[in-house]
Amino acid sequence: MEILKEIANVSGKGGLYRILKPSRAGVIVESLDGKGEKTMIGASARVSVLKDVSIFTEGAQDSIPLSEVFLKIRKKHGEQVDIDAKKASDKDMVEFLDAVLPEFDRSRVYVSDIKKIVQWYNTLSTHFPNDFVPTPPPKKTIVVSTDSKSAGKDEAADETSEPSEASQASEKSEKSEVSE
């Protein structure tokens, strides 16, 4: 989810912000709350880019990136999570994350964190629905020639082929130097 590189949470301010551009005094952001108002966030403010946020887990991995959690939520709940994070009980919030990410660390992931995840997911799903598709790993193509006779023919063809424009140009410059 490449969009998470552009989305930030600002400590002390509610909601998410799209990073527009950095400036000398901080960063210019646009609110994703529907109003779209642009604001200057000072350099002293704590800004967390969502690409760098992860959820603590138990087991082999110490944490899992937020992008993977969002993809798991999309797979299980679709475009919107039907839980009202402001009114839901703590038990409902823990059960929600347990259904999506059973290995989350219950001692280090607080209910307030789960509420933010639900709110962030719903906001991002509304504004950027096409970004909730897993990015496939790049394909690698390896070509192996097992026919040694065809390799020899290619080399022979290169020797008898016409000289390239670059070699013709260098030959002309050599001839002009010799004639002077």
Short précis:
The protein is an alpha+beta fold and 180 residues long. It is built from five helices and seven strands. 38% of the residues lie in helices and 18% in strands.
Look at the structure and give the CATH class of the largest domain.
Mainly Alpha
Total helices: the number is 5
Q: How many structural domains are formed by the residues?
A: 3
CATH architecture of the largest domain: Orthogonal Bundle
Approximate helicity band: 25-40%
The helix/strand order is EEEEEEEHHHHH
* Radius of gyration from CA coordinates: 28 Å
What proportion of the residues form beta strands (DSSP E)? 15-25%
Mean pLDDT: 81
**Largest sheet, order of strands side by side?**
4-3-2-1-5
Structural class: alpha+beta
Please state the oligomeric state of the protein chains shown. Answer: single chain
Morphology: globular
What's the CATH topology name of the largest domain?
Arc Repressor Mutant, subunit A
Low-pLDDT segments: 154-161, 164-180
Query: Biggest β-sheet, characterized?
Result: 5 strands, antiparallel
State the separation between the terminal residues, measured CA to CA.
64 Å
Counted beta strands? 7
What does this structure look like?
Helix content is 38%, strand content 18%. The model is unreliable at 154-161 and 164-180 (pLDDT under 50). It is globular. The protein folds into three domains: 2-49, SH3 type barrels (Roll); 53-131, Arc Repressor Mutant, subunit A (Orthogonal Bundle); 148-172, no CATH class. The termini are far apart. Strands 4-3-2-1-5 form a five-stranded antiparallel sheet, with no helix packed on it. A two-stranded antiparallel ribbon has the order 6-7. With 180 residues, the protein is of the alpha+beta class. It contains five helices and seven strands; from the N terminus they run βββββββααααα.
